[in-house]
Each structure stands twice: as C-alpha cells, then as structure tokens.
Design brief:
The structure is a single chain. The chain is mostly beta strands. It has one domain: Clam (outer membrane lipoprotein receptor (LolB), chain A), CATH 2.50.20. The protein has helices at residues 59-71, 160-168, 196-199, and strands at residues 38-41, 51-52, 55-56, 76-86, 89-99, 105-116, 121-130, 133-139, 143-149, 171-180, 183-191, 209-218, 224-235, 238-249. It has a twelve-stranded antiparallel β-sheet with strand order 1-10-11-12-13-14-4-5-6-7-8-9, with helices on one face. α1 packs antiparallel against α2. The chain is flat and about 55 Å long. It starts with 37 loop residues before the first strand and ends in a 16-residue tail after the last strand. Residues 25-55 are annotated as: Disordered.
Length: 265
Amino acid sequence: MRRQVAAVPVGLLVLPSGCSLFDARTSTGAQPSPTATETPTTAPAPSPAGYADGGITNATAARNGHLQGVLATGNVSLGYNATIRDPNGTRTVTVLQFVPPGEPRALTDTVVAAGGSRGSGAVRRTRFYANGAQYVREQRAGTTYGSIDGELPPAAFAGRQHVDPALTKVRCDSIERVERDGETLFRLRMSAIGDPGALLSDRLSAEDVTGGNVALTVGPEGVIRSLRYRATVEADGRTGNYGVPFAVAGIDRTPVERPEWARER
C-alpha cells in the first residue's frame, strides 16, 4: 500500500539570491550550457505569436505559444526562484523541474528554507512522476518516502502558473530584439504590476507595492526563456523585497531517469 504525503504546488521554485538557476550539475546528471553572449539587433525578425513591436498584443496567443513550444521539445529544464527578505529574515524556495513533455514522467526538486529572528530550518522534497503516480522523498531531520496516486498531464510542467500573470497582469514599457547564439530573442520590460498577488504572493495588493518591474525574454518559437519579477513591498509597517526569477533551459539536453528510491514499496 502506498503511504500518502502532502503535496505542494509542482511549479514553485525559489533559489537564494545570487545563485543561478542552472549553475551546477543537475540531479539528472545533465550539464548546463555555457553562458551565451547577447548583442542588440535591429534586424526585422518576425515577432512570436501574440507579440509585436508594441509588446504583448494577444495574451492567449502568447500563452499558447509558450505551452506548445515547451511541449514540442524532446526534454527541458524549468526553474522558478523566489527570495523574500524582510525584517524577520530571509525565506527561499528552490524548485527545479526536468521534463520530457512527450512522456508522462517528470522529476522535480524543491528546497524550502528560512532564517532570521523567527528561527531557521529547511526541508527538501524530490518528486518523480510516472505511470499515474507521484513518488516522494522528503529530507528534513531524517528521510521519509511516500507516493500519491494521480497522473498529471505534460502541460502541467510547462510553467504556465508563472508566465501567465506576466502576460496578463502587467503593462509592457519596451521591447527589443537581441541576438544570442545565432537566434533572435525578444526582451520585454514591464512595470505597473496591476496584480502583485498573482505574481508574488496572495497576501499582496497593488497598494502594498512601492516599486518593482518585470523582465521577460521570449524565443522565436514563443517559449518564454526567462522571466524576472522584482518588487519592494510595504505591508504591516514593514518593508520587504521580493525577487522571483523563472527560467527555461537545457532544451533537448535534459534526460529524465527514474531515481533508485522511486520504486513501488
């Protein structure tokens, strides 16, 4: 019989400030690609569906372009990284996803850590999804294992819960084309975060945000390669700083293998 364990949102990822999402060997054994160089370009490369020189023109088309682009890859790595600093200390959550979208399996690695006046601690949960089940390893003071019945479709691992708010809840201030490794990318800069609760935390309202911006980079096929939220928040007499980057990397270079511990028990 499978032991039941509590589930957390599959897409959540936070890394400590100053760390790269893919700056070390991943848990699948895949090596990150070398840092690419970028140069501005004025070449009239066509914009992905849903985008134009004025910014985002059709959020639905942009959303579908990202989803279809991710699902068309052989495999991919996704990471979401958020750091919250306030007078009580620093909180981070780290999640990496490794997904072959054409197959019903995925691996996610989540680390939640906190430190400051309210104490410190960390927990790591690693999940492997395959054959209608989620196998879970939790490392806290010790290590426990469990599993949950229920299959998730490949679309659940495309990071839409992170990119959707940026496509629908902010205003684009500028867009530029840049060249990276021979392909044209589209970089959008945005402000006027109309719904910070969707981007940062359900507890926030627009009145709480005193400053912030969003930067988004889109590939020619419509995949959102990177997304970064930054915000300064005044709430309950305290000032907090939010940093939330999301990235897609390792396209067609991220094989997913079943961990030894993810077996029927």
